[in-house]
């Protein structure tokens, strides 16, 4: 952990430079009535890293992601983003700050084409008003074309050019997952949250998705926080891992450190909780 | 063989985003425009205009408006009749001159040109629509439909009771005085068929153009995102309240203009409960559903279907087969009803979807494999 203590960041095993703290969760506690979903959890996400949150079912991982993206408001604790505490925000305001996410069970706009779905990721970058859009020619069209170029780059990057004009409802599961990632990438987010990006995929699709996640991080330098159940994938992809169990943090560190942490082994292999 | 996109390569995003990407469609569209503006005005008489063209054009505007709200933004509304009434009464006030008494002093606005009266009526309706759209943030689906029903009944009641709105006329009706553009009357008793037709056509073309532009850009994507999955829309940065309220505003603007034209150009005299009752809301909603939700073309198709079909049936039954008028009138209802049910079973997504399916078949015709 020594190399992580410096504010300037650290170097990963494969030699990538990780920057300063982008987001920091400080003593987050989240309750639903009498149930404590998250208890006093703190961790940070640094610029450029791939950060994984793992844990058994019901550990509070998705709740944590929902706190970050503004769906849940924690009763205690603060979320620090880009060096300042984040005031209480609606999910769309969080999105406008440059945090994009995907969902465990795909949340695409089924009635729209792939291209339109990806273009929704550009909505925060499109500022022309209602009247300019009613006229279309000029400002609105120029803006549309400029953002279309960004969207097309993402479509190109994720290799979904051939289904550009296909309605999303007609696509198979694996492609839908990829389109959802494309929509999140079109935002050009400073922080990308992935909620089980490989759930329900076969080995080949998992390999594809892993490659895309690594490429995104490599090419655009996007900071990624992900939840995943496939241990092999998590250990291979991520730079640092937070382990949660019953709403508490039981481990935090590089994959190797986490792998050898006794609490983590207990949580996964099971010991009698007393 | 003419109708295909093979070989029709787009080399810029502007080309790719145009309204009619297929050349044949484009030519067809301009041909329709040319006929509508340059041929039809010389051929029609007042029967054609009053029985077919005016109701078709005006209902097409209302259907586009409702389609923006229901088909694009996914907010069900049963208040169309009430919003049309707002448009009609606002137009009436603007064209006869608004007077307001404050502390015994009269502030009067002179009568405004009918063209601008109609547009201003649209803006007034947009404002009212936003007010009644406010509950949509909390209420969804059927419950929202019931909430908009309140708008329908309240607005009709309001225009029955509010004497200022109908200039204290004894009958409680509003009558369109003679008004014109460029010296040619388009409202009142002494209008020419072609003038009223062209007046409405100009509105239809401009409004359809605007609707197409709004629905293909970022505003339209916000609406559709809210419609398809509001949580995902919010997570991508769409402010749900603002997206829904702009949908209500734009939709009501269209419906208000339709109401204004319906009163001033088409009917000439209006009693609010009769002209803008709940059945009007349902009629426009059926047009949208039969035509196809989320399609501008569908709005035209639905309006044409429900306006033309009764006229066509009447002509066939009475004129062609020589049946008595009363029998034909009753059968007309039954046949229209049966046809609606048949259409919805055959193609639940409306006439627009039917057209899309035909286009996909045409793409490969005559060698489907």
From TrEMBL, chain A:
Stretches assigned to the ABC transporter domain = 23-271
Q: Which UniProt keywords apply?
A: ATP-binding, Nucleotide-binding, Transport
GO function terms (MF aspect) = ATP binding; ATP hydrolysis activity
Q: What is this protein called?
A: ABC transporter ATP-binding protein
Recorded superkingdom: Bacteria
Q: Which GO terms describe its cellular component?
A: plasma membrane
PANTHER family membership: ABC TRANSPORTER ATP-BINDING PROTEIN (PTHR45772:SF1), CONSERVED COMPONENT OF ABC TRANSPORTER FOR NATURAL AMINO ACIDS-RELATED (PTHR45772)
Q: Which organism is it from?
A: Marimonas arenosa
* CDD domains in the cross-refs: ABC_Mj1267_LivG_branched
Q: Which InterPro entries match?
A: AAA+_ATPase, ABC_AA/LPS_Transport, ABC_transporter-like_ATP-bd, BCA_ABC_TP_C, P-loop_NTPase
Automatic annotation (TrEMBL), chain B:
Q: How does it sit in the membrane?
A: Multi-pass membrane protein
Q: Where are the transmembrane segments?
A: 27-44, 50-70, 82-102, 114-134, 141-159, 194-211, 247-270, 282-307, 327-346
Q: Which InterPro entries match?
A: ABC_transp_permease (IPR001851), LivM-like (IPR043428)
Record's subcellular location: Cell membrane
- Key words, A-Z: Cell membrane, Membrane, Transmembrane, Transmembrane helix
Provide the GO MF annotations for this entry: branched-chain amino acid transmembrane transporter activity
Q: Name one GO cellular component term.
A: plasma membrane
Which Pfam families does this one have? BPD_transp_2 (PF02653)
Official protein name in the record = Branched-chain amino acid ABC transporter permease
């Amino acid at each position: 952990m020594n190399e992580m203590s410096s504010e300037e960041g650290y170097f990963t095993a494969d030699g990538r430079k990780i920057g300063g703290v982008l987001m920091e969760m400080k003593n987050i506690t989240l309750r639903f009535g009498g149930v404590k979903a998250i208890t006093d959890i703190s961790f940070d996400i640094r610029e450029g890293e791939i950060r994984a949150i793992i844990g058994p079912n019901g550990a509070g991982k998705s709740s944590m992601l929902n706190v970050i993206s503004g769906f849940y408001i924690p009763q205690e604790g603060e979320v620090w983003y880009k060096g300042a505490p984040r005031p209480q925000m609606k999910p769309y305001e969080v999105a406008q700050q440059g945090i994009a996410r995907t969902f465990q069970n795909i949340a695409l706009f089924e009635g729209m084409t792939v291209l339109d779905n990806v273009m929704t990721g550009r909505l925060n970058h499109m500022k022309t008003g209602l009247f300019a859009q009613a006229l279309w020619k000029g400002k609105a069209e120029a803006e549309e074309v400029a953002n279309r170029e960004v969207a097309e780059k993402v479509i190109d990057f994720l290799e979904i050019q051939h289904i550009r004009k296909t309605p999303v409802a007609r696509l198979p599961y694996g492609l839908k997952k990829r389109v959802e990632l494309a929509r999140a990438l079109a935002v050009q987010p400073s922080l990308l949250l992935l909620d089980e990006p490989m759930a329900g995929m076969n080995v080949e699709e998992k390999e594809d998705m892993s490659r895309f996640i690594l490429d995104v991080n490599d090419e655009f330098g996007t900071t990624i926080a992900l939840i995943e159940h496939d241990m092999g994938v998590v250990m291979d992809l991520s730079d640092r891992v937070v382990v949660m169990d019953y709403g508490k943090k039981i481990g935090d560190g590089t994959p190797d450190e986490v792998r050898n942490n006794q609490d983590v082994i207990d949580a996964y292999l099971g010991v009698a909780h007393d | 063989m003419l109708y295909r996109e093979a070989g029709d390569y787009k080399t810029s995003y502007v080309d790719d985003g145009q309204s009619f990407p297929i050349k044949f469609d484009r030519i067809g569209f301009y041909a329709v425009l040319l006929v509508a503006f340059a041929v039809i005005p010389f051929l029609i008489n007042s029967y054609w205009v009053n029985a077919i063209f005016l109701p078709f054009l005006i209902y097409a505007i209302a259907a586009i408006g409702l389609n923006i709200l229901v088909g694009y933004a996914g907010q069900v509304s049963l208040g169309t009749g009430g919003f049309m009434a707002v448009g009609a009464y606002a137009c009436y006030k603007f064209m006869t001159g608004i007077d307001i008494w404050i502390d015994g002093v009269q502030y009067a606005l002179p009568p405004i040109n009918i063209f601008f009266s109609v547009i201003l009526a649209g803006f007034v309706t947009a404002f009212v629509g936003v007010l009644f759209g406010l509950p949509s943030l909390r209420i969804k689906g059927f419950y929202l439909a019931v909430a908009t029903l309140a708008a329908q009944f309240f607005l009709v009641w309001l225009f029955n009771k509010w004497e200022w709105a109908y200039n204290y006329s004894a009958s409680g009706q509003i009558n369109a005085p003679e008004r014109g553009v460029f010296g040619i009357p388009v409202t009142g008793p002494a209008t020419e068929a072609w003038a009223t037709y062209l007046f409405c056509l100009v509105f239809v073309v401009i409004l359809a153009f605007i609707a197409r532009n709004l629905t293909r850009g970022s505003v339209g994507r916000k609406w559709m995102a809210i419609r398809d999955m509001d949580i995902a829309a919010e997570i991508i940065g769409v402010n749900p309240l603002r997206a829904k309220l702009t949908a209500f505003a734009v939709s009501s603007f269209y419906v208000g203009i339709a109401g204004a034209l319906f009163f001033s150009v088409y009917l000439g005299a209006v009693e609010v409960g009769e002209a803008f009752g709940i059945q009007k809301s349902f009629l426009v909603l059926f047009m949208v559903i039969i035509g196809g939700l989320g399609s501008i073309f569908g709005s035209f198709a639905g309006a044409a279907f429900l306006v033309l079909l009764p006229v066509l049936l009447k002509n066939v039954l009475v004129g062609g087969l020589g049946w008595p008028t009363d029998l034909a009138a009753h059968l007309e209802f039954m046949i229209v009803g049966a046809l609606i049910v048949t259409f919805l079973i055959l193609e639940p997504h409306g006439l627009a979807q039917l057209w899309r399916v035909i286009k996909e078949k045409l793409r490969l015709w005559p060698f489907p494999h």
